[in-house]
């Protein structure tokens, strides 16, 4: 089913603003939206639409969708994450538990998985909001290789954080590695601060813990 409440945004490089605010400041925006052909239906579980803007040409370049978990994207969640983890690190048992059974290990316990989709509904990236012992964790963040550098991680971060706020969590924690410098900068841009540096007792690749107060 399609969510009844879908928020729309304008995305200019790495800057994201609500579409209504963007349209109010740019008189050409409404006409650009009207001229944009409707090429696809809104995907199930859609929570937000991001219009990628070229301000110089005054046009909408493309449209991205963000959705919450849908079982049809289960294999994408696994494949995208296995690729980046196995390329840079050792795949750990905790990874396989979540990737092989995202419903049982993430969704059923109260968490969710956010996907960013291209206009043709192909998955371009994903992030998991994992709930355990009453706390919310952000993890399994990845964007497909062919979409790296396009800013797609920002809608994922924004929607993951928004989901945690809607659920009433006071904060979000994430576990990462300082070798992932671009990822750390992304997290910092979205308000996360470092709370611990050093080897983690359970997660082999983790040597940094970050937290965002909501």
Automatic annotation (TrEMBL):
One of its GO terms (molecular function) is N-acetyltransferase activity. Gene3D superfamilies: 3.40.630.30. CDD domains: NAT_SF (cd04301). PROSITE patterns: GNAT (PS51186). It comes from the Eukaryota. Keywords: Transferase. InterPro entries: Acyl_CoA_acyltransferase, GNAT_dom, NAT_camello-type. SUPFAM superfamilies: Acyl-CoA N-acyltransferases (Nat). Residues 75-214 form the N-acetyltransferase domain. This is N-acetyltransferase domain-containing protein. It comes from Absidia glauca. The lineage of its organism: Eukaryota, Fungi, Fungi incertae sedis, Mucoromycota, Mucoromycotina. The gene is ABSGL_09826.1 scaffold 11641.
């Amino acid at each position: 089913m399609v969510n009844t409440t879908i928020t729309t945004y304008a995305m200019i490089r790495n800057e994201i603003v609500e579409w209504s605010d963007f349209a109010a400041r740019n008189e050409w925006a409404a006409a650009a939206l009207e001229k944009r052909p409707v090429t696809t239906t809104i995907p199930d579980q859609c929570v937000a639409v991001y219009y990628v803007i070229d301000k110089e040409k005054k046009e909408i370049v493309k449209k991205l969708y963000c959705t919450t978990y849908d079982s049809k994207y289960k294999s994408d969640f696994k494949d995208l994450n296995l690729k980046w983890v196995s390329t840079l690190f050792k795949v750990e048992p905790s990874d396989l538990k979540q990737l092989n059974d995202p419903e049982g290990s993430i969704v059923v316990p109260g968490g969710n998985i956010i996907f960013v989709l291209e206009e043709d509904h192909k998955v371009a990236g994903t992030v998991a909001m994992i709930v355990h012992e009453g706390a919310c964790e952000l993890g399994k963040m990845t964007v497909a290789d062919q979409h790296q550098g396009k800013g797609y991680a920002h809608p994922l971060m924004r929607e993951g954080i928004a989901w945690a706020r809607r659920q009433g969590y006071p904060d979000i924690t994430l576990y990462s590695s300082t070798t992932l410098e671009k990822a750390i900068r992304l997290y910092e841009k979205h308000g996360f601060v470092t709370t611990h540096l050093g080897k983690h007792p359970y997660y082999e690749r983790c040597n940094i813990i970050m937290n965002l107060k909501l």
